[in-house]
Design a protein that fits this description.
Radius of gyration: 19 Å
Number of domains: 2
Number of helices: 10
CATH superfamily of the largest domain: Aminoglycoside phosphotransferase (APH), C-terminal lobe
Shape: globular
CATH class of the largest domain: Alpha Beta
CATH topology of the largest domain: Aminoglycoside 3'-phosphotransferase, Chain: A, domain 2
Structural class: alpha+beta
Strand content: 15-25%
Largest sheet: 5 strands, antiparallel
Length: 267
């Protein structure tokens, strides 16, 4: 986990834009960025900072994707400022209320969990049905997969400190050889897990962490939707069926699901 982000570290241009800061809370820190929720003269915001070269690249990508997505009706945070300084990359964006779907599911009763999973599927359906916004590059699902595999190869080559599992090169070779039949491309999230969907009072209030957003293969999102901590939320068959009812489609085959979960290992 990263250390907490403190007021004195924030670049001056961000502090100046925010105006008087009345509160700064550092939530549980993730593995790729440091986070702070800020209340200020201009409103309530989230600040993310990444210093590691790879994670800073992801943060730069996230701000670009968000600039495209705010042209849609999807519930995404509006980016406000993106700053590069000696401390890495900084992204300031609007605060969206709620807690992660993972946290909500972990303590919700059964009937509520079924409803939540239906909504979880429905918001993914909305993402996949949204036309790519102006500016976002168009590509086929096969082109997206080829690019994803090349990115995975780059991770193994250039970031060995992060991708040091000796089995990953063989995994990459197998994924290149066993590519599934292609499907029509859609807008995808690229990291659609219960951690990245926000919930407040039983309704979905936001979808966050868009560094993987692109026009790509929707099966990647469907596979990751159930790649959650089995012990923490332990989905039942009824809850999984509710997800697909909300999504409006059939589950992936086991071979498709495993292929895209294996692809995620390279990210």
């Amino acid at each position: 986990m990263k250390r907490d982000l403190h007021l004195g570290e924030i670049p001056g241009v961000i502090r100046e834009w925010l105006g008087e800061i009345t509160n700064l809370v550092a939530p549980a820190q993730g593995c790729t960025s440091r986070l702070a929720v800020i209340e200020a003269e201009r409103g309530m915001f989230v600040l993310k900072q990444s210093a590691d070269p790879l994670f800073a690249r992801w943060l730069a990508r996230e701000q670009q994707v968000l600039h495209w997505l705010v042209q849609t009706v999807l519930p995404v945070p509006r980016p406000r400022l993106f700053v590069e300084d000696g401390g890495g990359m900084w992204l300031l964006m609007d605060y969206l209320p709620g807690e992660s779907m993972t946290e909500t599911l972990s303590r919700a009763p059964g009937g509520t969990r079924t409803s939540l999973m239906h909504n979880f599927g429905a918001v993914l359906a909305a993402i996949h049905a949204t036309p790519p916004p102006p500016g976002m590059p168009l590509q086929t699902a096969a082109e997206w997969l080829d690019a994803a595999l090349e990115t995975g190869a780059m991770h193994l080559r250039d970031f060995r400190n992060l991708y040091n599992d000796p089995e990953l090169p063989d995994l990459l070779a197998r994924l290149r050889q066993e590519q599934p039949a292609t499907v029509p491309a859609t807008l995808i999230h690229g990291d659609f897990t219960t951690d990245n969907v926000l919930v407040a009072e039983g309704r979905i209030t936001g979808v966050i962490d868009w560094a993987g957003g692109a026009v790509g293969d929707p099966r990647y999102d469907l596979a990751l939707a159930f790649d959650a901590d089995e012990e923490e939320i332990a989905l039942t068959a009824e809850e999984m069926a509710a997800f697909f009812a909300g999504y409006g489609g059939a589950p992936l085959s086991e071979s498709e699901r495993q292929y895209f979960l294996d692809l995620y290992e390279l990210y």
